[in-house]
Amino acid sequence: MRYKFFKKEPDNPRVPPGQNVALGFPVLTYGPTPRIEKEKVELKIFGLAEEMTFSWQALMALPQTEVVEDFHCVTHWSKLGVTWRGILTSDLMATLKPSKDASHVMLHCNGGYTTNLSLEDFCADGCLLAHQLEGKDIPVEHGGPLRAIIPHLYAWKSAKWLSGIEFMDEDRFGFWERNGYHRRGDPFKEERYG
Ligand SMILES: Nc1nc2c(c(=O)[nH]1)N[C@H]1C(S)=C(S)[C@@H](COP(=O)(O)O)O[C@H]1N2
Ligand SMILES: [Mo]
Predict the structure, then answer these.
(1) pLDDT, tens digit, 9 for 90 and up, residues 132-183
(2) Ligand 1 touching residue 108 (CB < 6 A)
(3) Measuring from atom 1 of ligand 1, which residue has the nearest CA?
(4) CB-CB contact of 32 with 119 (8 Å)
(5) What's the half-sphere exposure (Cβ side, CA atoms, 13 Å) at 157?
(6) Which protein residues have a CB closer than 5 Å to ligand 2 (ion)?
(7) Is the distance from the beta carbon of residue 161 to the nearest atom of ligand 1 less than 6 Å?
(8) Which end of the chain has the least Cβ crowding within 10 Å, N or C?
């Protein structure tokens, strides 16, 4: 089901400038929705880090954490207080061996979508690789089985159908960043376009 109801909350400090509160949870996808069985999920770590591939089982064996975070889409809607469950990026990082030169990551998705982040933004508080939304498996249109959640930046950084994390020694542009979006995307600074 797809809801399209929004309300203005100008006095709510959690709502960034230029955003309206979404009462439902809109779906924002560029291109087709890839369908992947959990058992076929593979998360590849590559670039400037020791190469590793996590199966679904290996991901589920990592510490699991629930976060409640606001979600801000650059198309002017924010969904407040979304509950996600998954692996904190800081817990994932503790199991990886990135090179000392790694300063940025590129998130890669099934279907070809990409988005770039500094390592600091990738590891910030509340960031996780999520597999549950409001206590249930994430619906495929919202990025299930596995998506990134980067709550402090606009939601185009929250890569759905995550398939890889590439470590890099410089910033490179992902899909929307090449197409005019800001390289970082802080909603409270309205970093919408580059
Ligand atoms: N793989 C992939 N991830 C993606 C996108 C996409 O098109 N493909 N859209 C992004 C954008 S612009 C937003 S706003 C959020 C939307 O997440 P939702 O569909 O769960 O609301 O996913 C982000 N992650
Ligand atoms: Mo978006």
Answers:
(1) 999 999 999 999 999 999 999 999 999 999 999 999 999 999 999 999 999 9
(2) no
(3) 160
(4) no
(5) 28
(6) 28, 73-74, 155-156
(7) yes
(8) N
Provide the CATH number for the domain formed by 41-162 in this structure: 3.90.420.10
Nearest CA to ligand 1 atom 23: 156
Distances 47 to 37, 88, 144, 170, 171 between C-alpha atoms, Å: 26, 21, 25, 12, 13
User: Whole-prediction pTM value?
Assistant: 0.97
The two three-digit tokens of residue 138, written as one number: 């994430």
- DSSP-derived pairing of the beta strands 42-47 and 162-168: parallel
> Hey, where are the domains in the chain?
41-162
Quick one: which ligand is closest to 151's CA?
A: 1
C-beta of 28 in contact with ligand 1 (< 6 A): yes
Per-residue pLDDT, 177: 98
Quote the ligand 1 centre to 147 CA distance (angstroms).
9
**Residue 89, SS3 per DSSP:** helix
| E strand spans, the chain | 6-7, 20-22, 42-47, 52-55, 65-73, 77-88, 104-109, 114-118, 128-133, 136-137, 147-149, 162-168
Q: How many residues does the chain have?
A: 194
Cα(64) to ligand 2 centroid in Å equals: 26
| Cβ of residue 98 lying under 6 Å from some atom of ligand 1 | no
